[in-house]
Amino acid sequence: MNALKYGLLLALWLPGSAWALCSVVTTTPVAFGSVSSIALRTTSQSSSTLNAGLSCTGSLLTLLSANDHFYGTVTSTQSGLLGPTGDVISYTLYANNSTSYPMTRGVAYDFARNGIIDALGLLGGSTPKTVPLYLGTTIGSNVAAGVYTETLSIFWNWNYCSGIGIGSICLGRDINSGTTTLTVNLTVANDCTITAPNISFGSAPVISAFTAVSGQTINLACTKGSAYTVGLSDGQQAVSVGGRRRMISGSNYLAYDIFKSAGTTRWGSVGTARRASTDAEVNPGNGLGTGSQVFNYNAKIYTDQTTPPAGTYLDSVVLDVGF
């Protein structure tokens, strides 16, 4: 009689049994990398970590019931990624690689629901697996350049059947909790949007008939708080001596130049020939991010040259912004 009872006990515990062990582990930081201020403002940036601090091994997917849970609660002393000047970049955390599962700070999110744990295969097999998290920045952030960081606190709390016997009888539960931290960082790089219309001198039969082009503007919308300079190259056909810019048609040249504001100071690309953001005619100072700074200029064809043969004369000038 005793041997029979012993045999039934073995049959109950051994076939089909599987055990799970979950634990809180050190996380893998989230790094968005370097993003231009314009891209950050206009497009949601995404990143993720494959390890948000909860690691599990073993068990069976079929063990998850309505009473089982894997809660993750994210909190922070900040409201987003904090930068060197106090600007904040907002972002959303997601429980899987889809915007359909957003997490709210301070509210427990159950990873056992919506099939997330199943999809991860967190409880299947014998190799430890960790819970990932996904992040997406909020469009519209107008911030200064620099490194932005936040340290999140994640409280993990779980309760589920960790072993099963014949007839899907639960042989034990894994109930535990723990807290870990997750660092998130993003670097904002300086950038500008530039509006620079072409210059057209029109047509004339002789050099003396060309009129100066005035009232021309270059508009720049550069990273919030950025101090920068704007340079104009000498073009593709510049004279090495005297520094005049030239347009070309075939083998013939037509000398011209571009000058700062409404004056006669040549706008160049080196040293004091450049223009500082503080020199803008509209909104002088550091960059505004979402607002434009306007630089006026004028251009003229030099009249102390011989009229070249008729033709269409062209040149290409590069505008560069230095931070």
TrEMBL record:
Q: Does the keyword Signal apply?
A: yes
- Which keywords belong to this entry? Signal
**Where do the coiled-coil regions begin and end?**
none
The family database entries (Pfam families) matched by this protein are listed as: SCPU
InterPro entries linked: Spore_coat_component, Spore_coat_U/FanG
Q: Where's the Spore coat protein U/FanG domain?
A: 18-153, 179-318
Q: Which domain of life is it from?
A: Bacteria
Signal peptide feature range: 1-20
PANTHER family, alphabetized: MEMBRANE PROTEIN, PROTEIN U-RELATED
Name by which UniProt lists this protein? Spore coat U domain-containing protein
Organism equals: Pseudomonas fungipugnans
